[in-house]
From TrEMBL, chains A, B, C, D:
The lineage of its organism: Bacteria, Pseudomonadati, Bacteroidota, Flavobacteriia, Flavobacteriales. SUPFAM superfamilies: Homeodomain-like, Tetracyclin repressor-like, C-terminal domain. InterPro entries: DNA-bd_HTH_TetR-type_CS (IPR023772), Homeodomain-like_sf (IPR009057), HTH-type_TetR-like_transc_reg (IPR050109), HTH_TetR (IPR001647), KstR2_TetR_C (IPR041490), Tet_transcr_reg_TetR-rel_C_sf (IPR036271). It comes from Flagellimonas aequoris. This is TetR/AcrR family transcriptional regulator. PANTHER family: HTH-TYPE TRANSCRIPTIONAL REPRESSOR SCO4008 (PTHR30328:SF54), TRANSCRIPTIONAL REPRESSOR (PTHR30328).
Amino acid sequence: MDFNEKQIQILKVAEKLFAEIGFDGTSVRHIAKEADVNVAMISYYFGSKEKLLEALLLYRVADFKMELETVMVQNLPHVEKLDALVSLMVNRIHRNRRTHKIINYEYTNTCRQIDFDAYVEQKRDSLGIIEAFVKDGQNKGVFKTDVHTKLLGATVIGTYFQVYNNKPFYKKLLELDSDEAFENYMLTSLTQHIQQTIKSLLLNEK
Amino acid sequence: MDFNEKQIQILKVAEKLFAEIGFDGTSVRHIAKEADVNVAMISYYFGSKEKLLEALLLYRVADFKMELETVMVQNLPHVEKLDALVSLMVNRIHRNRRTHKIINYEYTNTCRQIDFDAYVEQKRDSLGIIEAFVKDGQNKGVFKTDVHTKLLGATVIGTYFQVYNNKPFYKKLLELDSDEAFENYMLTSLTQHIQQTIKSLLLNEK
Amino acid sequence: MDFNEKQIQILKVAEKLFAEIGFDGTSVRHIAKEADVNVAMISYYFGSKEKLLEALLLYRVADFKMELETVMVQNLPHVEKLDALVSLMVNRIHRNRRTHKIINYEYTNTCRQIDFDAYVEQKRDSLGIIEAFVKDGQNKGVFKTDVHTKLLGATVIGTYFQVYNNKPFYKKLLELDSDEAFENYMLTSLTQHIQQTIKSLLLNEK
Amino acid sequence: MDFNEKQIQILKVAEKLFAEIGFDGTSVRHIAKEADVNVAMISYYFGSKEKLLEALLLYRVADFKMELETVMVQNLPHVEKLDALVSLMVNRIHRNRRTHKIINYEYTNTCRQIDFDAYVEQKRDSLGIIEAFVKDGQNKGVFKTDVHTKLLGATVIGTYFQVYNNKPFYKKLLELDSDEAFENYMLTSLTQHIQQTIKSLLLNEK
DNA sequence: GATGAATGAGTATTCATTCAT
DNA sequence: GATGAATGAATACTCATTCAT
């Protein structure tokens, strides 16, 4: 849970490389070289390549852990709270997009023996908070009731990753000619699109 | 383009394994064993592991190619046509979910030297057809105009894959206790959710 | 001994490739492709790669077989006959330089199970003829007697191959800027040098 | 340039095997086994089989580097100096005959991507020294002038290798019934023959 | 605590050859 | 007689990990 400087250095490089070229595609040599540490150090610190990934999950999953609560307790109209919620989710995913991408890659990998419990638990918590909020809105008649509440999160995150995972395609489609422009688009127009999507689904009237 | 029986056998096994344990994680030995062919045969038929993946893309991408047109030409009200369109997209993705998953994994892999042109072209075509349809609906006043038309596809596909890529999580969340139940859910409730999402975004009145 | 057209085609390609990239470095696939025949044909015609080399030796060794005799029987002064002899040797080696090079490579290869008897026999014959001629000259007082007669051949052939095997080096050293110029040099100046060398060794007076 | 004990062990085995069965014919497994080291060690130490050969060249080429100078500076009559020079060349080649043989094999191999610059440079240096010595002798009227000075080296080395590369043939021809006898012959009679050859070419009077 | 050296198991690919047709 | 398809064995090399120091 508490990593020293060199460990964090390794974790960051690993996160980058795992996201860019996959878990299997990344060799510990590559990580070691990029992080400017000895190869043996990775086994020494983390035990194995798989345990390094688990350490990375632990390191990042803490960050996934919600500021959702902080939004929830605010005294805002449901609509605005909904926007804030979506915006927060996108921001959080964006911040940890690399680790999320790795998880998306590896979570269903049948061969890997990696402990995703922390991730799953956190995901369940998040969705629980959202579900409760939606229920509340529905009870108060602000939100529609004929909605697959449990799937709302999938739409938010899924839309984000569909664009992120097809970055070169969408850069061309949306005429974004730099990585900065793309990144900026993700945090403005794409976020807006997702907010609009969720609001359309939930709000009774325009 | 025209593969013999053994080649198709290899392609199918490769598709399955690539989707399950990743491109790097899958060894040609593994494919050969599972497909019950000699290891050398894969190099013999496809040249290399990477070219095998390219062959798989070519083999499947033809199938991606649209029945979209067939829906477009039907004389249906816009709303129903929209539902049909989404349903078709989900079905098509579902049918080729494995290859799509591989693409999602590998497309942004900076190290891989694989030709995704056919995929990109097909994706562009699909989105073009959808965009044209939405434009038409907007012109006729049936669809709203304040919508990120180019992102609609991402929401459809993204939602699907977010659930599919987190299958164990959603199986538990949605209390689906078998793979069949999950599969069935994808093609009914999930499809319905996505249809509803897109309609909410586009339709002027409930 | 009597090869058909396709076999000769294969032999010629094999000779070229064996000389250029070595016996081990040359694959039967490469030969087959270059000779524009089916891969299986080589095994079919010659039995194996090693037997192909043996066939090549048989095919060429016949050509080594002397016109030496024809020079011997001519009624020429010893000095001129000596020049003619050296010139003939160089020409003959040059014509079959590729096969000779292969032999030089492979003859001492301890692992290879190739029959070099024909080559050895021919070599012995050649040297025998030369030795007899030199003996004759010595008896007649034209040639010196304090000479390692058995090594004369090695000096002739060795000088040739030392230049040929270091072609790029000697091209630069001798300022020969084309393969034609090099080839021409081998047959004029180099031949002359070798003639001069042998004459210096054998003749009593300048 | 500075190799540890195990590296030298590998280099020596590689030199032997490359000379005996060729570069392509020698597998890294074979080298590893003979040198009694792990296969991976060869890649670990040298990077690749080709780089191993380059390392070998570097390791040996230093040894090629002349004691020629030491002979040159001695205050000896030209004739004796010439004998000493030839003797030195033969000795040096003999000592490194294996590496020289490999070079003779591989230098003109069009496919190989190996850096022979060090070898070429050393060869040029050697020939340069010899050429200068011969020029000096010619100026002083001791050596003949109608000689292909640049080809003298080829005759020395070529004669040596023609015998060495046909060892089984010459063993029989010269009735040398052991490897020791052959080796001894190379350093006495053969050397003498080469000395005599060069002297015959260069000296004005008997 | 940290690491250079070392390794056994694994990788994709290529090889010469065989065999059914 | 000739060949496309197929294969077991071998190739060089890379892998994550271990261990002596």
